[in-house]
Amino acid sequence: MLKLRRAIVVETRPPNGPEQELAVVLVGSSGTRADLRVPAGTPRPSHSPLPQGAPRAAIADIGLMGAAEVGDEVVVNVQARDLGLGSGGFDIVHVNLTRGLAGEGDQSPARPNVMKLNYTSLQHAVLPVEDARVELPLGSPVGVLALHGQLAAVAWAFAQAAPGRRLGYVQSEGGALPGGHSRVVAELRARGLLAGHLTAGAAFGGEGEAVTVAGALHHGLRALGWDAVLCGPGPGIVGSHSPLGHGGMAALDSAHAALALGAPTLLVARMSSGDSRARHRGISHHTLTVLDLLLEPVTVALPAGLRSPVGADLRAGLGAVFGVSSAPRPQLELDVSRPARIARHDWRHATVDLPAYAASELPARTMGRGLIEDALFFGAALAGGTALADLLAQGDRKENRAEAAA
Hints:
alpha/beta; 2 domains; 8-stranded parallel sheet; 5-stranded mixed β-barrel
C-alpha cells in the first residue's frame, strides 16, 4: 500500500525548473504539540492538525501540482525515505490540500489526449510527439545508457569529437520517472550539450512526451533534427540484486527499439574500478546481461589501452591507462556463461581525456565516488561519447559516398 502522511510545509525554495524543494513536518495523529519543531510564525490552516517531529526534506513536481508555500497542508509519500533507499532520501508530495485541488488540467488548444501514469492517482493528459509518418531506416546513431550518471560524460565527449552536431536525450524508464528531477539535463541544455529532452513511456515531464521509446527516437531524429540520440533512464536506478530485476534492463528494450528503426546502436558500458560490489567491478553484470540477451550485435566502447573488458587484460589496462591497481572482479570470466554472445559485439577503443573532463566542471560523481575514486566509470562513459561521434562520422562518410555515386 502507499505510505502517505499529512504534513505542513515549513520551508520552501524557489522552484528549480519543474521541481521545488521543500521542508515539511509530519502531522501527528494525536493533535498535541509533542516534539513540535515548527519555526515560529509558520501559518497553519485552522482546520489542520498540529504537526510533530523534525522537518523532513521533500520535493514537489510543479507541473503536476503547482508550487507550494509555507503553511500549506500537503500529503507526502514517505515510503522511499523510510526504507532508507540510496536514491530516495526525501519525501514526495502527493497532493497539496491547500492550493492543489482546483486544477483544471491543461487548457491548451492542442487538447492533450494521452494519459501518462495512467490508472494511477497521478494520471495526467499529455500531447504525444509521435509522428504521423514513419520514415525508416533512421540511419543516425543512438547511444544507450546504463545509468543516468553516464549522461554528462557521454554528452561532453560527443561534443568534443563532433562539435556543432545536435545530440538529443530520450529519457526512458528504469530510474526516476519525472523529467524535471535531473539537474544534469538542465545543465547540459544550458551549456548547449543537449539539443532537447523527450520523456518516453512512463517517464514524463520532458520538453516533449512520447508514448514509446521508438516514437521518441523517430521524432527526435526526424522532426527535431537531432544528429544523434542518447537514450537512458533518469536518476536513481532501480535494483533488486537479481540478474533481470534492475533498471539497467531498460537498455535492452531501448537498444532493440533503435536497432529495429535502423539506427546504428551503441551501448555505453557500465564499468567501475571503485565500486565496493563485486558484481559491478570491471564491467557490470547489468551491461553483461544486456549484451548477452540482445538479439543483434551493437557497438560497445572501451577506453583506449584496455584490451579486454574482463579478466587479467582489464586489470593490466587499469594500471596502464588510469593508474589504479585495484583488482576488479577477478572471477569475472566464470560469470560469463556464454562468452561468444559477449564477444560478437563490435568492441571499439576510444581515447579518453579525464583531466579535460574534470576541467569542464560538469557532474563527475557516481554513487558518491568522484573521478579519482572511480576513473573507469567515467573513462567508459567518455569512450562511449567518442564512439558515438565516430558512428555519426561513419554515417556521414557513407552518405557522402552515396551522393557522389548518384
